[in-house]
Amino acid sequence: FFFFQAEDGIRDAQESRGLGDVYKRQVYMSSKKILVVGGAGNLGKAVINVFRSKWAVANIDYSENKNAHHNIVLKNNADPDQQLENLKKTLTNFSPKFQAIVSVAGGFTLGDISDKDILSSTDKMLQMSLLSSIMTGNIATEFLDANSFLGFTGAATVVKENNFVIADYAVGYCLSKISVLHLATFLKDSPKLPTGTKVFTVNPTTMDTPQNRQSMPNEDPNKWLKPEVVAQDIFDVCNQKVKIENGWNKIYSCCLLYTSD
Q: How confident is the model over 189-229, as pLDDT tens digits?
């Protein structure tokens, strides 16, 4: 996920079509609102699917998510700071405040420190994971409501016994995810966020996605984490079904998990 210019601003998931559209607008008018950064990816789709019946959902990504109530579609090749300002102007048209803002943007690439393309692969990972998270934090300083939730996505790979580790086969990826976790730690004590903000992170292990099934055909996907599990955990946190402290950190291990407050 990179900084891009808003292509056509906010779009409804579909044109007005009778009672279905009336229901959608009722959800928008009466519900809490969540902003999902990276809502067209596998985890983002799962998050939007679990929220959409109870919350009004806005998606920011390269492409639309048809299940979001509103989409901000972005494109490449523009000044990042200017695009961030344009994005926030567009976002204002959807809602002045959100009760949850969550970044589930990111990606994965291999990269050994001796690789010839280590700089470009690391830069790609930093943009996809870290810069999207910085953008999310910046948006939260203006658009997050008081006593609300701000979520980020790290990775179980980079956390071991409360220490950060770098896998030699994925240097750029690990560095980008460690940076996201440092950012979340910084933001949980930041006076720039609204009063009562609770910052949290989820750290998935290998997730069961079509891309992972294709790239690892000899592995057993039944041992992988379902995106829906992580999405449900985010939903439970934002609906206060699970009570968390500011700085809550959830780390998954296959189908098991532990938390670190």
A: 999 999 999 999 999 998 888 888 888 888 888 888 999 99
Q: What's 184's DSSP letter?
A: H
Taking the mean position of all CA atoms in its chain, how far away is CA 235? 13
Which residues, 6 or more positions from 197, have their beta carbon under 8 angstroms from its beta carbon?
Answer: 140, 144, 146, 147, 148, 149, 150, 188, 246
State which amino acid sits at residue 89: K
Question: Dihedral through CA 14, CA 20, CA 22, CA 27, nearest 10?
Answer: -90
Q: How far apart are CA 231 and CA 43, in angstroms?
A: 7
In the prediction, which pLDDT does 221 show? 82
**135: CB partners within 8 A, 6+ apart:** 3, 37, 84, 87, 103
pTM: 0.87
Report DSSP letters for 65-90, one per residue.
Answer: -TTSSEEEEEESSS-HHHHHHHHHHH
User: 227-234, long-range: CB within 8 Å, 24+ apart, which pairs?
Assistant: 227/42, 227/43, 227/45, 227/46, 228/46, 228/49, 228/50, 230/43, 230/46, 230/47, 230/202, 230/204, 231/43, 231/46, 231/47, 231/49, 231/50, 232/50, 233/202, 234/47, 234/50, 234/102, 234/151, 234/202
3-state secondary structure of 48: helix
